[in-house]
Structure formats: structure tokens, C-alpha cells
Design brief:
This protein is of the alpha/beta class. It contains 16 helices and 39 strands.
């Protein structure tokens, strides 16, 4: 009994001492992200001329409002590829250019949403630097980019603000107001110097994204940043990436001092099961190498959310817990809308939307049959061949009377709308009848310009070998049914070349991977390669029409670069297609079957495409339907 008072006194003293010790402040902060909107401000498909439930910032806004109501402490960012990507974007840049001093429709909407900052994507540069600078001048929030520098003599200078230090006041868990400084770094893929070389050569230089961020993180800390966020327009690869690579998410996530990582560019979704096998991934928490990360798809089909718990320890704020997730506007499995569109967007950009519709509905020709791209990856296809023919006709006229006129003329084109990660409704599907400008834009969705390269027959063969990397290797004697298409290969890199005939032997290993790296295989998938019925002379020279992206090295194709360009045309491919159709007036879409995939004995070659292709099967005897799935896709067989 004698010890009780002494124990009570000690306990009381401990309580007094504990009560006198300052308690660590904690607050919750929600980071919201949009990315790769590509001017899909409305939930409207300009190519099909109808509303859609699958995407659009108007839909994402509903999610933004919901997320903000749940978490009053929040920040909202955009990760670029905003200004280009659909006819509304083209309208503002090319058709009815943005008047001097006017606010671009994207910023009419985004300013009302009170974005905190935004990053530049690669497609921001498609219309040239003057238009880009004019457009972003209308943003009521800062734009950042740290790895693009001004070209010229002297010390390198940033072409844009490399970062911004946001000062915000938030409410902590105890109800007290806390001041935070948030450092935001912007990054873009250095490959813009290839993809938009005509716009950027001599004006900009690009540095590695990781090196640029690494240099700025300590600088921001010295300036008092409590939190550092990288908005990186880059994807996430499984394997380590080299200096200057396009997709550096994993390497960025390893940088000391980075608190959150916002990704884009790849039109993929993180966190999701697609990245379950990537090193350093925690799908439950939504992190890469411990850094909370999101990549919310494309076109406003998802909103990215990162919830951070911050604790003030030893005089600074630290992230003590985090969770990242995606919220979608559409459920693909049931094909059901999850949210309604916010009416604000339609009200704010009604005039620009109306002007775009009027322009896109203008008729240019008549088609005697449907034009679609559901099977452009497995069969010679009219939608791709039409583009190739239009390009060829353009350059034929352009080289008349020059030495280039004597070269054999070929034309390369690829399918742009081919479902997959873009969604199983993302196909060209034009009914027979009037062809309008909206259909031209549907056939060719990018504002690329026409180029022609002078190449040898040997270089042409390797071009096609790279394209043939789209297919998985099919192994005779293995499974009786094998998937034909490699989902990691981008369909816009599957070039067919009009003017040659050839076959593709998918039982052979690919000579190049999806990034253009040479494999260990010495085999050839391209067989029976001929020009005008004779075996291709690999020493002969050819004139090959393509677009500025491919001509300047886009896609990593072997031997293709700006030094091979001999026709550097300023006109867009879409305009060439429109002119080609207008000159024909009555157009009969057909494919000449200049290439085909060889059958593999004992193996059924199967592939997935949009279920919208099913009604077109009667006209395609080499294809049959195996199964239709609820997500809008279907499994087909390519028959011998």
C-alpha cells in the first residue's frame, strides 16, 4: 500500500509531461489528375457524330466534384496531350484559328474547374510552338516543363517554367489551418524532337526526364517545398529504360524525395491488373517503388486520385500513408454509364462545338460500300489502303518534272483506330453513302503532314519486318489455338506498304520488338516480297510516302530518319485524303490484297476485335466469329 502514492505521483507527472509535449499535426490531402484528354471536352464522338458515355471531360467533371466533396483538402492537375486529338482541336488550330487574345475552349472549361497546375504532353507541339504558347497563355493556372530547353548559344535555358511552388492552406485533422508549399515538376518525352521535328528543330532541345527531375528535387526542398509532385507525361515499362527513353515511370519513382508521381502518355491505367507483374508495384496501395502513382487512361475516361496522410515531424511535413486509385466514367464489362455529364461544358463551348459539327458534316464524296477498320490488323484493308492511295497520288503530283519522278513510288499507311486499350468501340465504321469530313478525320485521326523517303529495297524489307512484329510467334505443334496479335505492339506502327506484294510468316520469330530493338532472330517473317511481280531488288531505290512521325524516326523503325526525307511537304495527310475523295466523287472502297498472313499448319489463328465488326463478316470469307463477349469485344478466327 505504501508504494501506491509514489506510483500515482510518477504517473501523474508523466501525464503532465506528455500533455505539455506538442502533438504532431496530421492532415489529409487528395491529389486529382486528368490526362490525355485530347480535346475530348464533351462526351461527344465527332467521327460517329453522336454522344458517348465512354469518355469526355464533361463526364470526368462529375467525378471531380464528387472527389472534392469527399476531401476538401485537394489539388487538381492535368498531365498534357490536351490541345490535339479530335476535330475540335483541329478547328481551333487550323480551320478557324484561335483569334489573338481569345481563350482556347479547353481553358474556358478548365479555368472554371480551378486546376492548380498542368504539364505539357508531346501532342501539345503538333501545331507548332507559336500556337502552343498562344493557347496556354489563356490558362488561369501555371504550366510546367523541366526537360525542354531553348536551343541556341550560351548556357541552356528552360523553354517553359520548369516547376512551380504552390502555396496552399489546408485544414488539419484538429481543425487548424496549415500552410503547405507543394513543388510541382513537369516532364515530357524527349522523343518530341523526332515526332515534331519540323516544328521544333533549331528551337528546342530535350533532356532526359529523370536527370531533369533529379536536379530539381533538392532545389525545391531548399526553397521550402513540403511536398514534391512530378507530373510526368510518360508511361511505365517493365524493363529498365535507357537514358533519354520515352517511358521512364519506374526510374522516376526511384528518385529520392519524390512524394507523388502522376503519369500519362501511354493511355494505360494505373493502378490496374495490367501492371501486376511489373517490379516495384503495390496494386493495393497504388504505388511504384513506394511512391503513390496514378495514370488515368485517356480522353477523360478515368480520374486519378492519390490520398496522402501528412504528418508534421521534426519541423517538416512527411507522407506517412498513401493510397492511389482510379475512378471511371464507364463500366466496360456491362457497358454502363457510371456518371452523368456535367452540363457546364456544353454551355461554355457551345459555339466552338457547333462550328466543329458544321465543318465535319460537310460532304466530300459518296462511298458505294462501308469502310471500317475492325480487321485492318489481319487483312489488307480498304480503310488503310485508301489513305495509302491518297498519299501516293499527292506525291505523284508533287514530284512531276523532277528526278524523283523516275523512282518507283510506294506508300506506307497503318490502322489508327484498332480497339485494344483505346476501347472496343474505337474503330472506323463508316456506312455506305455520303462521305463527310468527319469520315476523313475518322480515317486519319492525327494532324500529320506528308513526307517521302528515298530508300533501298533492303531498307524496305526491314521496315516491313518491324511492322510484322505486331504478331505473336505462332508455334506449330504447340496449342491448337493461338492468339495472333501482340497487345503490346501499337497498331499505328503496323505499316502496310502499297505497291509491294508480300506474305507474313508468323511461325518465325520477330526480328524487332515493339520498340524497334533488333532481336536475336535472323529469321525473316516477310516472304515472297515482290515489286511488279518480280522479287524485290534490295539494291534498287524507291520513293516511299509516309507521315512526318514515321519519317522523323517515330516508332523506332530501322533506318528511318530525317536524313532520308526527299519530299518535305507541308500539307496534312487528312487534306490529301479529302482531296483524293473529292476528285473521285463516287468512291468504291476495296483492298487489292497485296499482303496476307500465311496459315500455320495445325494451328487456328485467333484474334480479338470489336463486336461491331460482326455484321461485316459476310463480305470477308477468311474470317469467322468464335465468341462475342460482354465488354464489346469478340474473338475471331483468321482462316487459311
Amino acid at each position: 500500500m505504501a508504494f501506491r502514492p509514489r506510483f500515482a505521483a510518477i504517473a501523474g507527472l508523466a501525464l503532465v509531461l506528455f500533455a505539455g509535449k506538442p502533438q504532431a499535426s496530421e492532415l489529409n490531402l487528395r491529389i486529382l489528375q486528368t490526362t490525355d484528354l485530347h480535346m475530348n471536352l464533351l462526351n461527344y464522338d465527332y467521327y460517329q457524330d453522336r454522344l458517348t458515355d465512354e469518355y469526355g471531360l464533361a463526364k470526368t467533371i462529375t467525378l471531380i466534384h464528387q472527389a472534392r466533396e469527399q476531401a476538401p483538402n485537394n489539388l487538381l492537375f492535368d498531365n498534357g496531350d490536351l490541345l490535339q486529338g479530335n476535330p475540335l482541336g483541329d478547328m481551333m488550330a487550323r480551320v478557324k484559328p484561335l483569334p489573338k487574345g481569345a481563350i482556347h475552349p479547353a481553358f474556358k472549361v478548365m479555368n472554371l474547374l480551378r486546376y492548380d497546375a498542368a504539364n505539357l504532353g508531346n501532342h501539345e507541339f503538333n501545331y507548332g510552338l507559336p500556337f502552343l504558347r498562344q493557347a496556354i497563355a489563356g490558362a488561369a493556372f501555371p504550366y510546367v516543363n523541366a526537360n525542354l530547353m531553348l536551343a541556341g548559344p550560351g548556357r541552356p535555358r528552360h523553354a517553359f517554367n520548369p516547376y512551380v511552388l504552390l502555396e496552399r492552406r489546408f485544414t488539419d485533422k484538429a481543425g487548424k489551418t496549415q500552410a503547405l508549399k507543394i513543388g510541382v515538376i513537369g516532364l515530357a518525352p524527349p522523343q518530341i524532337m523526332q515526332w515534331d521535328r519540323p516544328h521544333l528543330q533549331g528551337q528546342l532541345l530535350a533532356q532526359d526526364m529523370v536527370e531533369s527531375a533529379q536536379a530539381l528535387i533538392p532545389q525545391l526542398r531548399r526553397q521550402g517545398a513540403d511536398l514534391i509532385i512530378a507530373i510526368a507525361h510518360t508511361g511505365f515499362e517493365k524493363d529498365p529504360q535507357a537514358l533519354g527513353a520515352e517511358n521512364k515511370a519506374a526510374e522516376l519513382a526511384r528518385l529520392p524525395g519524390l512524394d507523388a508521381l502522376l503519369l500519362g502518355h501511354a493511355h494505360a491505367e494505373f493502378p490496374s491488373a495490367a501492371f501486376a507483374q511489373h517490379p516495384g508495384v503495390d496494386l493495393q496501395r497504388g504505388s511504384i517503388h513506394g511512391v503513390p502513382t496514378v495514370m488515368p487512361g485517356r480522353w477523360g475516361d478515368h480520374l486519378g486520385l492519390i490520398d496522402l496522410t501528412l504528418s508534421r515531424q521534426q519541423g517538416r511535413w512527411r507522407v506517412v500513408d498513401s493510397h492511389a486509385e482510379l475512378r471511371g466514367v464507364y463500366q466496360r464489362e456491362s457497358r454502363r454509364a457510371l456518371v452523368a455529364a456535367d452540363p457546364m461544358v456544353n454551355h461554355v463551348i457551345a459555339k466552338e462545338h457547333g462550328d466543329t459539327l458544321a465543318h465535319m458534316r460537310a460532304q466530300v464524296a459518296q462511298s458505294s460500300a462501308p469502310i471500317h477498320s475492325y480487321f485492318a490488323q489481319v487483312l489488307d484493308d480498304p480503310s488503310v489502303q485508301l489513305v495509302a492511295q491518297a498519299q501516293k497520288e499527292y506525291v505523284r503530283r508533287a514530284v512531276q518534272g523532277t528526278d524523283l519522278e523516275r523512282l518507283p513510288l510506294l506508300s506506307a499507311a497503318a490502322p489508327f483506330k484498332s480497339g485494344g486499350r483505346q476501347g472496343w468501340s474505337n474503330y472506323t465504321d463508316i456506312p455506305a453513302g455520303p462521305l463527310a469530313l468527319k469520315h476523313v478525320a475518322d480515317l486519319y485521326v492525327y494532324p500529320n503532314t506528308i513526307k517521302a523517303l528515298k530508300l533501298s529495297g533492303a531498307e524496305l524489307r526491314e521496315w516491313l519486318e518491324m511492322s510484322a512484329g505486331q504478331f505473336r510467334q505462332i508455334k506449330p505443334g504447340s496449342a491448337p489455338e493461338q492468339e495472333l496479335l501482340d497487345p503490346d505492339f501499337r497498331a499505328y506502327n503496323f505499316d502496310m506498304i502499297e505497291g509491294l506484294t508480300y506474305e507474313i510468316d508468323v511461325s518465325q520469330a520477330a526480328r524487332y520488338d515493339a520498340e524497334g530493338r533488333r532481336s536475336a532472330s535472323n529469321a525473316h517473317r516477310i516472304v515472297n516480297l515482290r515489286y511488279q511481280g518480280l522479287p524485290l531488288d534490295e539494291r534498287a531505290n524507291f520513293l516511299v510516302v509516309t507521315n512526318n512521325y514515321r519519317a522523323n524516326g517515330g516508332g523506332g523503325f530501322p533506318g528511318l530518319n530525317a536524313s532520308k526525307i526527299v519530299v518535305d511537304a507541308p500539307d496534312e495527310t487528312r487534306q490529301a485524303v479529302a482531296n483524293y475523295l473529292a476528285s473521285a466523287r463516287q468512291f468504291n472502297p476495296s483492298a487489292d490484297g497485296n499482303w496476307r498472313i500465311l496459315p500455320v499448319p495445325g494451328v487456328r489463328l485467333v484474334f480479338r476485335s470489336g463486336a461491331g465488326g460482326i455484321p461485316h463478316l459476310p463480305a470477308l470469307p477468311r474470317l469467322s466469329l468464335l465468341r462475342q463477349d460482354e465488354d464489346g469485344s469478340a474473338l475471331f478466327e483468321l482462316k487459311p
